[in-house]
Structures are given as structure tokens and as C-alpha cells.
Specification:
This protein has 424 residues and is an alpha/beta fold. It has helices spanning 3-30, 40-51, 72-77, 90-96, 106-117, 136-148, 164-185, 191-214, 224-233, 239-258, 284-291, 305-308, 319-331, 343-355, 370-385, 402-423; strands spanning 61-65, 80-84, 128-132, 152-155, 270-275, 295-300, 360-366, 390-395. It has one domain. The strands form 2 sheets. The chain has a 4-stranded parallel beta sheet, sandwiched between helices. A 4-stranded parallel beta sheet has the order 6-5-7-8, sandwiched between helices. Helix 5 (106-117) runs parallel beside helix 6.
Amino acid sequence: MDKERRERLIRTTGVHLAMEATETLRQVVEEFPDNPRAMDYFYDLFRAEYCGGGAKKNGAMRIGMLCVQAPEELIRAAGAVPVRLCSGSHAFDQAGAEFMPAKACSLVKATLGMLSLRTAGGAERLDLVVNPTTCEQKKKAGELLEDFGYRVHHLEMPPAKDSEEARIYWQRSVKKFAAVLEETTGVRITKQRLAKAIRTTGMARSAYRRLHELAKWPRPLIRGKDVMLVTNAYFFDDLDRWTAAVTELADEIEQRRETNLPGAGKHAPRILFTGSPPIFPNLKLPLLIEQAGGVIVVDEVCSSSRLLHDQVAYDEQALYDMVPAVADRVLKPCTCPVFLSSQDRVRRLLDLAASFAVDGVVYQSFAGCMPYALEQRSVGQALVNANIPMLSVETDYGPDDQGQLSTRVEAFIESLRGKARKRA
């Protein structure tokens, strides 16, 4: 691509990204009358990051992560800041179409489009990109990133997670990653630094778990579109500020519970959202669900609950114990469909459906995302056997299917209203 065309593409993509983000935030904020006051922090954060030229960054080294499987505790212990690089922008999806196949997954294509332009979303300055070898498209994406001039570390994942051999293989990969981090940052990962990183990230996860548990209340106290904005903010926000903002939000939601002030109608169907992850500004399907009268009370996606659900557990404050514990925290609870077996994922979905008293499940799969598309049938059958209705949706980042999706979602939500009234 010649220099003039590249500069033109950067300008137009930046304008389109700001337009996408502005419209998504308009829907999130203005189309719902009962937004918690504490959500203003997150609304303003996204305006600054996506519509106002980017939020302020500190001077620490920045390590880009292409997947939740990268152990962020090690990155923080090495004195760097982890930045999740996944993009939900249709503008970046179009930029990625310059060099990616037309049928590639929108998430991968948009992320590579963003990184190829080195403009927004965390791509401005990266000292290292860690690429866990999960799906086939992300594996090949690493080679393209090296062509773009990024320094890439391929964090090798085992194809399964249940055997002791897989656990040992993964722990060796994580230890190698730790050595690469030390070489990159010039900071040694000591037991004190790692313990502090585990403690700090643990506090953030505890704050989120409060919010997560409050969603079990019979009358919805907060909408899923807000929870997804909170978890997406974890990708790039300062960790201490994020934890404080989530704590304040959870305090407000608890107050709503005490005063019996719901965040949605008491007869609103309760939805479990799963499948391909909603990444800002592509909250198309979650917004359609809640605009149609449903409320997403829980999700099982790697950009939200799966990102923040589990804690690191270790016995001794020693590297030989803490590093394997960090590795286990990432691997053992993971329910990503890239692994050979989906049994843990099915169990997790059924457990969430029961714990959060959901009326139905919406399963999103991006066009071109084979792991979720292939798994959809087995998940659907398990839900049918449990008498839980499921709407399966294949979509992408484009706006062309908005009308069709709206019709399908409204029909599904309407079919659940009787069940919701009976439960209420």
C-alpha cells in the first residue's frame, strides 16, 4: 500500500471509528432510562478512548494481548501494562479486508486492520505482542503482525486442557513467556512483584464478582449492555481506577437492591449471552436484545465474565508455586471451544442458566469463526435437553443485517415473555 493511500485510509478509518463509537454510546446511554449513575465513569472513559483522541497513557512498557489466555499477572510483575488488542470496529474490519480473506472472522480481521494502521485501540505503541495459539486464524495472524513490524511472542497452547501432559506443556510455555517478558522490560519477575500483581488483579476480579453475583437478584438490577461496557473497559483502563469504579458501581447496585429499584422491567425475559465475544463498539446483538425488552443477566464470553471470573490460588509465596498457579488460572477453568472437548463449556452454561434463572440463551457466532460455529449444535442440544430455549445467530461487524436480526430477536424475546411472567 503506497504512503498516500495509507494516510487516506488512516484518516477515513479514524472518522468512521469515532462515528461507530458515538452511535453505540448514544444507544447505550440514551435509549435506556434507568442507567446507574456510577456508569458515567465508563461512558466518559469510552468517549475519551474512542471519540476524543484516546485516553492518557502512562510511560510504562505496553504488552499487547490477542487473547484472554495470556497471563496478565506476569506482564504486570514485569513492570509492563497489558493491553487487550481485540477490536469490535467495522471500520477496522474494512481496513483488514485489504489483506485478509473476505470470509475471515470479523474479530481477527478488525484487530489486524487496527494493528496494520497503528492508530487507535492500543496499537499506537506496543513493545511486544503476545499471541496465544488458540484458533487457526489467530495463529496465522501472528505472522502478519511480524510483517507489520511488531515483535510477536507466540504463546503455545496445548490442544486439550484436561491431561497432566497438557498442564505441564502449558506451564513450560508460560515460564518461557516470563523469560521473554523479563528480556523485553529489563525487569526481573520476583516473588514480591508477582505476589503484588496477583493481589492487585485479584482485587479487580473480586470487585467484578460482586457485580456478577448481584445479577442473580430476581428483579434485574443492571443491564447486560452496561456490564459488557465495564468488562470491555478492563482491556485498556488503569487497573486501580477500574477497580474503584466497579466497586462504586456495585455499591450503587446493592443500594438498588435494598430499595427494590430494578434496572429493567420485572417481567423482562432473563437472557444468558454466549458465543463469539461482543467487543466495543460492536455491541450490536446485546443492544438488540435489551432494546427488544430482554435483559442479559449473565454471559459466558471471553470479553466479559470469562475474562474476570477466576482467581489465582497458590500455597506458598514462591515463584515455583506462583508461576504454575498463574498458568493454571488461565488454562484449567477455560471454556473456549478451541479445546478438543466442550464438556466443561456445556456444564458451565447449564450451571449459569440455573444459577441466574435465565429464560433463554442467545448464542452469537461470527461469520468465519469455525470453533463457535461447530460447537453451536452440541451446545444447542444440551440446552434443548434442559428445556432452555436458544436463539442461534450468525453475524459479523457490518450493519447490513440489523433489520433481520432485530426481527428475529424480537420474536425470540416475545416467545419468552410468558415464561418470564410465570417466573415473576
